[in-house]
Amino acid sequence: MNNYFVLDSLNILFLIALVVVTVCVMFYQGFNYCKNAKENLKYYSIFFLFFLSMVGALLSNHLGLTWVFVEATTLTSAYLIMLHKSKNSLEATWKYVFLCSIGISLAFVGIILLLIGSGSVNSLFYNDLYANAAAINPFWLKLSFIFILIGFGTKAGFAPVHSWLPDAHAEAPSPVSAMLSATLLNSAVLVILRLVKLMSLAGLGHTVQVLMLTMGLLSIFITAVYVYRIKNYKRMLAYSSVENMGIISIGIALGSLGTIGALIHVLCHSLIKSSLFLTSGNILHLYNTKEVDEVKDLVSKNKCTSWLWLLGAMLILAIPPSPLFLSEFLIIKQFLLNGQVVLCVVTVLLLTIILFGIMNTVLKMNYTTNNNETEPVKLPISNYIPQIFLIATAIVLGIYMPNGLFELIKNAGGIIW
Predict the structure, then answer these.
(1) Which of 43, 134, 259, 353 has the most C-beta neighbours closer than 10 Å?
(2) How many C-beta atoms lie closer than 10 Å to residue 407's C-beta?
(3) Are 17 and 266 in contact (CB under 8 A)?
């Protein structure tokens, strides 16, 4: 008998990231984030439904039910993105809803194609699909995977179907941006991982590798192209998410050590990126602008925020002791073990371009001298503690990863391939 909700090594890893980030975001924003009690009640009710829809997507053992929960994340997060009801936030919300709805519709087509190809299996429970993978028609399964990858890849922020992400992340309130980048994208990635396993069991792993390597490299390339042209620091973080989703896609495609690296990347990207988005909220509060050129001498304005901004940037760019250095090292090693030297060199070159672009922006914001004397501004301690905890946790994982956690990641990797 199949259960609609299950726990395994794979979704436990994603749940850890979701719970840790949500607790930190709640601590940062407190329980009076909006201007009045009525708005607060509405905001936190929808925020809680958003959280529950992501939990449902992660725990679901049925592809159709997973689709429902992923669609629910779109509906609930749309209100959170347009919370401030500015012209730009409304435009970003409509773009988000429109593109993600198209994506989820394509995923639905993929599910129908999978049912056509599965014949007598007639079930969307993952266990049933895995047990009968060899009996599924390869043509329909390949076609189904393409639709599902594009559909859920839109929600995950894979290029070239990522265009909603920079606008939504840039315009959403900073705590919501943290949830979108650190937890929402993961929910879509997990669905793709479930289908990657099905493709692997059906002997169609090569198709997965070609498609996911292509999307991964394209995601990193697009970030490398845009990173020097971005003038909005929250948009910069959004493109960084596109880059990191690309790295995860590449790791999954490579298999073995690459998959372990991708799963480490999923967890640690969630910790670091949520810290950066929360810190961007501090910067917005201090300067009342999202424009990079208007943020100067941050180190004098608020020293703690400037250090959190710098450390977060270094960690997200995989500068040791970042745990992302370990994940990217494993992915590069798998590239070389597979004999894909040219793709490895291209990936490393693109990552280096992104590193210089983001660090140039962060250092400019921190240390560019202001013409007028900068007056220090204090913020509540709750504006620092979540980021300190997230960054400290990431650094610890970069130096020493507990055996229990590493075994969980290895077991999760074994589930995929």
Answers:
(1) 259
(2) 11
(3) yes
Tens digits of residue pLDDT in 148-202: 999 999 999 999 999 999 999 889 999 999 999 988 999 999 999 999 999 999 9
Taking only the tens place, the pLDDT of each residue in 332-349 is: 999 999 999 999 999 999
Lowest-pLDDT choice from 10-14, 81-85, 101-105: 81-85
In this structure, what token pair is assigned to residue 159? Answer: 């290029």
Cα–Cα distance measured from residue 390 to residue 271, given in angstroms and rounded to the nearest whole number? 5
369 DSSP 8-state letter: P
Tell me the whole-structure pTM to 2 decimals.
Answer: 0.95
Identify the DSSP state of 160: T
Write out pLDDT tens, residues 271-301: 999 999 999 999 999 999 999 999 999 999 9
Number of H helices, E strands in the chain: 18, 0
Confidence of residue 1 (pLDDT cuts 50, 70, 90): low
The one-letter amino acid at 257 = L
Q: What angle do CA 101, 103, 106 make, to 5 degrees?
A: 110
Structure tokens at 77: 């997060």
Centroid of chain to Cα 65:
21
Spatial separation of the C-alpha atoms in residues 33 and 26, rounded to whole Å: 10
Helix (H) or strand (E) holding 167: helix 164-171
Percent of the chain residues past pLDDT 90, beyond the cut = 85
For tokens 């910790």, name the residue: 271
The residue among 177, 160, 163 whose CA lies nearest residue 99 is 163
Closest listed residue to residue 152, CA positions, set 114, 200, 206: 114
318: left (phi over 0), alpha (psi -120 to 50) or beta: left
Assigned token pair, 39: 């708005």
Degrees, nearest 5: CA angle 58-132-135? 135
